# Entry
Amino acid sequence: MDEPGLIALRDRLVLLHQRELAGVADDADEDVDFSSVASDRKAALVFALELPVGGAEAAERSARADLLGAVVNGAENDLVGPVLEALLAMLEAEQEPYVLTSIAYALGHSWDERARDALLDLATQVDDDVRLAAVHGLPGTRAHSDGPDGDTPVVDALVRSTRDPVAEIRNWATFGLGQIEAEGPEVDQAFLDRFADPDDDTRSEALRAMADRRDERVVEPLIAELRSQHVEHVVVGAAGWFADQRFHGVLLDLAAMPRTDDDDQGWWAELDAAIRRCDPGAPAAAEPIEVAILAVLQASASESGHPIDATLFGEYPLTEVVITHGDREERSAIWNFDERRPDSPASLDQAFTFYRLANIASWI
# Structure
């Protein structure tokens, strides 16, 4: 990106922050395109580092943090270090909550454990916006190198944040715990406590997280939520992922509602998929499909002269094909292969399923 373009982007960001600080910003002010920074991240980094910090007004300091965050968002590792060094230096000298919020979001864009301690501290700040920005970024800073206990500070902070008085912070903390697949009794209790949260989004994220774990404690609260006046998209998806016939009746009740062209068609598609997944006849319909896929896979491997052993493990919707060759083993889900769009007997593309399993068998 050429320097005039970077200057124009910086000026646009400064104006946006000035308007926000003055309380006159509107939705149009949020329409800032950072994609051009990715075309030359190194040039954008040099430009951002040269922007003044000392003596600059809050809007200018926030714009600098925004640019650094755009540089590091999705960047190669060689850019992460310099960006983090610059942001942490800004943080050390910064006291204005508005600018701290920009720095926190930028640190979160690094997806790097070196930002963890700073975000953990920011997650305890008095200012609501600072805490929200920190909670946004914390899931990406888990210290994988520290082993199984390396996640503990992040998980503990997110668990605490699920009890924040601000609904949006509770929502993002609950989502974050589910995103990193955190485990343990404290995590489970955090989700259970959010089942009765007054905020629809927070409650829905807690239900989804426990449904992802197939925890029986979610069944009755999830049924109750499906019977409520406003059913979130993620709640329908949670029932579909669980794929239990106990949800089938209430899902059919939802399907009986009038549909219009103005409706969210994605919601209706999610509902139709959930109904198929939770159909009481789905397990019985799944079994012959699983057996047929396994038989074709075994026959194909035999004909190719590549000896493998293939077996089925588990039951619908958790059935996996286990492929072994010597001391090597690979497992692949049949129904839950695509976690965003899990299948049912009525929706499974059997040809594609065989194709991907055959590919696994060919290189194992």
Summary: Residues 297 and 357 are 7 Å apart (CA to CA). The chain has three domains: 1-141, 149-280, 282-363.
